[in-house]
Each structure stands twice: as C-alpha cells, then as structure tokens.
Amino acid sequence: xxxxxxxxxxxxxxxxxxxxxxxxFVLTALEGLGFRLQTDDHHIFKAHAPEETRETLxxxxxxxxxxxxxxxxxxxxxxxxIMRPGSRMFNWLLSQLKGKNLVAHCTPEDNPASLSxxxxxxxxxxxxxxxxxxxxxxxxxxxxxxxxxYLIHPKHGNANADVIHVTITPDGKRIDNDQAKILHSxxxxxxxxxxxxxxxxxxxxxxxxxxxxxxxSNDTQTAELIATTIIWCTYAAGKLSFSIGSxxxxxxxxxxxxMLVDGTSxxxxxxxxxxxKSSYHxxxxxDGRITVADAIGTCSKTNRRVLTMxxxxxxITKVQAMKTYFLTCPISEQVILKxxxxxxxxxxxxxxxxxxxxGTCHACRNLRSVSRDDPRxxxxxxxxxxxxxxxxxxxxxxxxxxxxVAKSFWKRLxxxxxxxxxxxxxxxxxxxxxxKWTEASxxxxxxxxxxxxxG
Length: 455
Ligand SMILES: [Zn+2]
Fold this sequence. Notes:
This protein has 455 residues and is an alpha+beta fold. Among the domains are: 1-100; 115-139 and 238-284, no CATH class; 367-449, no CATH class. It has helices at 16-32, 88-97, 115-124, 177-183, 203-213, 257-262, 375-383, 442-449, and strands at residues 36-39, 44-48, 62-66, 81-82, 103-108, 127-128, 131-154, 162-168, 188-190, 221-244, 247-256, 270-271, 278-279, 281-284, 290-292, 296-298, 305-307, 311-313, 320-322, 326-328, 335-337, 342-343, 350-351, 356-357, 360-361, 368-369, 391-397, 401-407, 411-418, 424-431, 438-439. The model is unreliable at 1-13 (pLDDT under 50). Bound molecules: zinc ion. Residues 344, 346-347, 349, 360-361, 363-364 line the site of zinc ion.
C-alpha cells in the first residue's frame, strides 16, 4: 500500500468527538475480529492480524494505521493507513463486519479492575483523626449498557460520513448525563474473561428498541448500523466502617465504581447522628462518640472535647462550657456561667452582674405597690397568714421569685418567695429610717411567718 492509495478527506475530522467516535469504533471492532493492538507515542497503531483474516489483507500479518489528520497524502508516512470514514482501511473493516452480526462485550478501559483499587481511592476521601476506615462489605456488580454505532452518510453535498455512538440503558432509554460520564472513555477494553450473563435480556430486542429511539435517518442523511457493543460498567454498593478507639460508625455508599475512583463523583460524607453535620473529616469526642471535626468544641471548665451542640456561651464572659455550668438570670434571662453570676445584696438571688446597680438588682429597684386582692399577694397571704398584719405591700416578680416589701408602724419587712413552691428563700427586716436590711434569724422567721416552709 502506498500513500497515494489514501482517500483524501482534508476536512476530516470535523471535530474531536467525531474522531474519538471513529477511534473507539475501529479499535473495538478490530479487537472483536481478533486483532492484537499496539500503539506508540506518535499515535500510530499496529494491528496484528489473526490467521483467518490475513487472506483478505493480501497475506499481510500486520497493518499500521493512524487516526491523525495529515494535511496532504504526501506527508503521510509511507505504509501507514489512514482510518476514517471513507478511507480504504475503514471500508475494509466494514466489509469484515458485514453479516457477522458481532456483539462485542467490553468495559471502559479504566473501569476499576479490583476491589483493592476501588477501596484505596475511597479511603483517601476521608480524614479520620486517631482512627481508621475499612470496608465492612462491598459488592461490585457489572451492569450492561447497549452501544449502537452508526455510520451517518450525508445525502447531499460533499460532506464526509461520520461515526456516531448511541447508548441505551438496560431498560431501553437513552443514557442521562451521569451515565454518559461513566461511559465516556476513549477506548473500550474487551471484557476480561467470560462476559457476564445478560440475564434474559435479548440483544436483538434491545437493539430494536434502541434503534426505534434513535431516528438518525432523515431528509439529509442516512444511518447505517455498523456495530453493536455491550459495555459493562461496575456498580459498587457497600458499607464503610470508621473506627476510633473502641467506637465504630458505619456509612453505606453506592455508585459507579469508575466515577468513585476517578473522582467524577464523591462518596458520601459521614453524617454525625447527633448533630446531623456532615463531613469527610471524622473524629471522636472524649466520651468516645464518633462525630465530624466541625461538631467538636472544648469545654473550658473541664478541658474535655465535647459536641458543640452541648456547649453554651456565657453572655458575660463569652466563655464556652457544658450547660451544667450555667444558670439563667431570672430577670434578664441571659445564660451565664454560675461563676460569673452575682448576688443581689437585697433579695440575695443570683443574677446577671449587668443588671446590678450599687449591688442591687433591677427587680429590687422596681417594686410596685400592690393591693392584698392581687392574686399574687392573695397566694402569699394564703400561705403565710401571719403576714396579714403588715401593710403598704410592694411587689415585683422575676421568672423565679416574688420579691415583696411591707411596713408596719415601726419596721419594714423584705420577703422573697419562690413562685412555684411558695418556699421562702430570704427574709430580712429593716428600720423605718434606714434602707439597710438585716437577714432574719431562724427564730425571727418563725415569729414573722408562723409555720415556715423555708429551705
Ligand atoms: Zn434583688
């Protein structure tokens, strides 16, 4: 064969995908016919012919070809065939396929071959502080797609023929974008070993279904089916186990093995069951529970690593600690570290330091005159009838207590009563002329209140 035999189609390939389609078809078809393929750095292929095909090649044992587009026949290296629709070698290939009704079983060339190749890539997606990840179980299942290859002949003008692949799902639909990504491969490799069982799928029916979905022939072109390929892709489903210390957590996953391996799709993030936060960074808190790094904080009181959802921030000091270290101010309702609360010098309740003025809380400074008929006063007097001899009642309530002040002819009384239990929390008396209060002794309390329900 000499360079002058080459059909000149200078405007081919019309685009890269057209060239790739041709390349994929030719290489798959040659392998299907029993040719052994080799390629070199210059993208020149060698195809070693099987015994039975040599006669049609005038006795040649090997053909060399390229898909590259040389600008003119005279610069094509001698003895190298051009492989493109319409070329001599391409037509020879079509004649070999004609009538054979070959169905090639293939996989994308980078379909993961082993579980270890697959799991290694999967594990790399996760960072596990002080622990490790392993596969708890995984099945790799080969799922088939049908690829129909058409040669498109334009009916008019001088445009060249083109090769198009149409891919159909096992349930007879055109593939979606995700599936196209799995199948997008420059080369298909023959399925290693015995091809899997199609489980009752009739290739002829499948092909018919595919053809009916693909109306490629129209007023301007005709479509000729030139190859049928079953492409097997590996679908993985399993469970990962993360272990840190003696604790373990599981994560189910599934997806196309090749997409997980080449990074086209990511495995699922681990989701902390308690905080519902998700991440690839897995870590444990000090009590051993496994969560994600983002969900972990430190309790400033214990220095322990805990879930941030269990921490509170002090409204006064801004320090974070476990909620057991906090109280809520009964007046401002701020959440404050117990150690940052202040004691009101009048009612002796623990309150936010922000609501103290000269040591007295905002409530104690805002007592309002109240009649005996007020439901709150009625409750207090009902519980402690001896208080009825006092008059001039003033009252204020917080979320916890009633703070009441009363007077008699020569004395003043301060009493703090819990709103729910009616327990007396503090009693003090004072002179009429001075604002100072003196806490009542146990004996004085009995005299003032009668039977006392003090804690
Ligand atoms: Zn107070």
